[in-house]
UniProtKB/TrEMBL annotation:
Domain CRISPR associated protein Cas6 C-terminal: 81-218
Family: Belongs to the CRISPR-associated protein Cas6/Cse3/CasE family.
Pfam families documented for this protein: Cas_Cas6_C
Keyword Chaperone: no
UniProt source species: Imperialibacter roseus
Gene3D superfamilies: 3.30.70.1890, 3.30.70.1900
Protein's name in the database: CRISPR-associated endoribonuclease Cas6
InterPro entries tied to this protein: Cas_Cas6_C, CRISPR-assoc_prot_Cas6, CRISPR-assoc_prot_Cas6_N_sf
Keywords: Antiviral defense, RNA-binding
Lineage: Bacteria, Pseudomonadati, Bacteroidota, Cytophagia, Cytophagales
């Protein structure tokens, strides 16, 4: 869709993220089946012009096929921006990826405990790099000294006790190549300056956010109560 719109600055634009399709589902041997009449996709970016561009292109399609699922674009709503502080509690709408994959080794599948400083350090480095690439104020970035992710210990313990997983291997397609990466899904508190919190809330946390990873939401928030009419920016074309 980004290519179809033909606007060069947005065709390879990476500073956005998106969720999986939300709806009533059931897993079978044949795959994931949707039983909802409607499904929802959440898309976020710190660049409203990009969101406008994506939505305008999306609504030129009479239908969108994803696997055997046939969708018709129907409506768009804007979620009201929640209050974000220097200590915000998040849930993962999509898995967080902390390592870049390589064709020559399986490093990206390596498990790194979220309770270690290494986990926070990797996310800090990728976040600062992406903020610089996105053109954030260099002075604000230079002043960032605090960045610590603290996972919900009770949640992790319950997952372990039930022998379930909060870290899984996922396929990733990049430059027509297939990789395998490890993604993490768990609630956590992030201690970081507000400028960092705002960036990751709109652009995602970790690697490959523009490929459907690293989308977050504020814990205990009710999106249905935050939805308002989406207003497109005025254009001259």
């Amino acid at each position: 869709m980004l290519v179809k719109g033909g606007q060069k600055e947005f065709i390879d634009y990476p500073f956005y993220n998106f969720s999986g399709l939300k709806g009533q589902t059931k897993i079978s041997r044949q795959g994931l089946h949707f039983y909802s009449r409607r499904v929802t996709l959440v898309v976020a970016s710190n660049n409203k012009a990009f969101i406008d561009y994506f939505l305008r292109v999306l609504f030129t399609f009479p239908k969108v096929d994803i696997g055997n699922l046939m969708l018709e674009p129907e409506a768009v709503e804007l979620e009201d921006h929640p209050e974000i502080t220097d200590a915000s509690r998040y849930i993962c709408i999509s898995p967080i990826v902390v390592l870049q994959p390589s064709l020559y080794d399986a490093e990206a599948k390596k498990f790194i405990s979220p309770e270690t400083d290494t986990f926070s350090d990797l996310l800090f480095e990728s976040t600062i790099q992406r903020m610089e690439q996105a053109g954030e104020d260099p002075q604000k970035i230079e002043g960032i000294g605090k960045f610590q992710l603290v996972p919900d210990e009770d949640y992790l313990n319950k997952i372990r006790e039930s022998q379930k997983k909060f870290a899984r291997i996922y396929p990733l397609y990049d430059q027509d190549l297939k990789y395998e990466i490890r993604g993490y899904t768990f609630p956590f508190v992030l201690y970081a300056p507000k400028v960092v919190q705002e960036f990751i809330f709109t652009c995602g946390l970790g690697q490959f956010c523009h490929k459907g990873f690293g989308m977050l939401d504020i814990a205990n928030a009710d999106p249905s109560k935050r939805a308002v009419t989406y207003e497109f920016a005025e254009t001259t074309t």
